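Marked as duplicate of an earlier ticket. Keeping the data here for the record.
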Amino acid sequence: MRRFSMAAGLVLAGLIGAQAAEPVAGAWTTASGETANIASCGGAYCITIVTGKFKGKQIGKMSGTGGSYSGEITDPEADRTYAGSAEVNGASLKLTGCALKVFCKTQTWKKQ
């Protein structure tokens, strides 16, 4: 029984470590060069543009942990909202937005 508890504790510690290693919150440079801030908001993460033409506009909201997230993202230029997902890998954030689950576009943002 004690071995099981110790093994479960190590697995849990590994999962917590993996989540801590892939933080989505923070400042990111978008594909178009603006800065977007991702911050905790009401049990999810909100994405707000903080520089450029759309400064102050919230463009997304997503939920998830451990480097994998899903939610919605808005293209501020076209003012269209898409179902999306995001994957954090070190200092890169890969965002994919899809219309009708068929027409998808992917961008990579860099952590500042």
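See parent ticket for discussion. The chain has one domain: 2-111.
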